[in-house]
Amino acid sequence: MSTFRELDSYDRVFNFGNYDSSVSLSEYQQAGGYEALRMAIGNPKQALEEICRAGLRGRGGAAFPAGLKLKMMQGNTEKQRYIVCNADEGEPGTFKDRFIMNHIPFQLLEGITIAAILAGAENGFVYIRHEYPLAQETIKKSIAEAEAAGLLGDNILGSEFSLHLKIFSGAGSYLCGEETALLSSIEGKKGRPRVKPPFPIESGLWGKPTLINNVETLANIPSIIAKGSDWYRSLGTEDSPGTKLISLSGDVKRRGLYEVPFGTTFREIIDNYGGGMKEVFTLKAVNIGGSSGVVVPPEELDCPMEYGKCAERGITIGSGAVYVMDEQRSILGNVHNRVHFFLHESCGKCTPCREGLRQVNRIIDRVIEGEASLKDIDNLERFTRCMQEASFCGLGQAAGNSLISSLKYFRKEYENSCVDCVGKTAERGELC
Amino acid sequence: MEKLGKAVGDIVSELGPEKGSLLAILLAVQDASPESYVSEAAVNEIARLLNTSRSMVYSTASFYSEISLMPRGRHIVRLCINAPCEDAGKEEIRKALEKELGIKLGETTSDKMFSLEGVSCLGACNMSPAIKVDDKVYGDLTPAGAVRVMRELKEAAKNEHIS
After folding, report:
1. Which of A92, A192, B15, B80 could disulfide-link to B85, CB 3.0 to 4.6 Å?
2. Would the CB atoms of A188 and B135 count as touching at under 8 Å?
């Protein structure tokens, strides 16, 4: 606790300013905003090098190296290209992109503009979910202001670069956060995923090369270029440089959005940023990475938030949602809620996800009703593995991941509800 | 019928009669509808103007949960149903809203004033439990607070009616 200090304002990638309002264009420029765009226009090669050296990785969940993606775009000879900002933030427990769009819209627009210049894209979309009308309004207004100031549109800052950016509204589909489903959605189709490869950088919107990045990834770019990759790498760890926006919710004293350097442990996030548990109850479990993430017990919380170390322990950082549950919460209730969520959001394209979720839902209903047997729990695990391994896209695979983690750490809670487990309850400890 | 054709026609020509505009067209048609939905007649008209099949338009429209193919109330009350809101007291909020409005989740009041829907994560988990009424999010809600929001809307509608 004594070694903890929050990041200095200079060391923040995101300066949200006052949470109650949005940072205006003039305020943003006064604080050094759009300096990075000037630098990128002056020396695009250097700008790309900085992003690569900074080791920036995708913040939407997949953690793909952002610099490498840009380089791959440059390797494509097709002239017509697109940039898409994925602002379809639908992962339950996540609200970072909403904060970025509502409070620092110009930092996001500057990041998109720089990425578009490096990727050679002259047209682009910001795909914002329909549940965020304020963000849509703020970004729309900010695009118009940036265009009027010569920071967007034709010949940006008098250069040969142009970018025409439009808002595209989602319509309430979680799956559209998956990049190929998002592209289908922009093309006016159902938001169902496509086979990869080809990846969007080769064949994206209307078959043209398309750079898709998450809001947070793009909003990192101006700070990296303006302050340099050495500064960026001084935050975080060797494996995962920089910071991550953490959406902290649940039974902690201070719920909210925090910018946390990589390498911080999950326990520190809960205790130092969140101020510890809200009431007298003790911590029971933490859901990391939203609905598609994992549920872990307190023993796992000393793991540092770092891509490599988390992967070793089977923790997915995902979108950076950290949902804290105290001892009053039921793991089965939480899992039940998540299975319902995935069942609703599954597009029905592939059998493992569509039917797997239906079967899993039936079993969990039975477990909750106290009608399941231990054999059902084994079946549950089997179906879950099948979903993990055979689903077409990330949705079904992630649904499996989140279930497997609860079975791994909290199997007792499932088994204690089983009919043929009654005799063993006493020796197995408390009934949930 | 004539009037509907015109409104849909205006929206389509404004957004461009291309398949890529379909989702935007559907949302705009829904926003323009006094009952916040895309009617069967509107689906037919969009298909005709986009020179595509009705099933193609219907397939897109029915896929997205923010697009309704059934008439809805003037105010759409969306209750977040995901885990953080669930644990923070979503059930109490649901019961209070259902009692106050006299409808169940997924229904519309007979005076066509309110529709009550469940929604997947409003991104307001820092202030759960949360609901969204039309475009406004209300967080850190209590059942009494949720009822108060509904009563204010009823009151506002009544005053509008008088004036």
Report:
1. B80
2. no
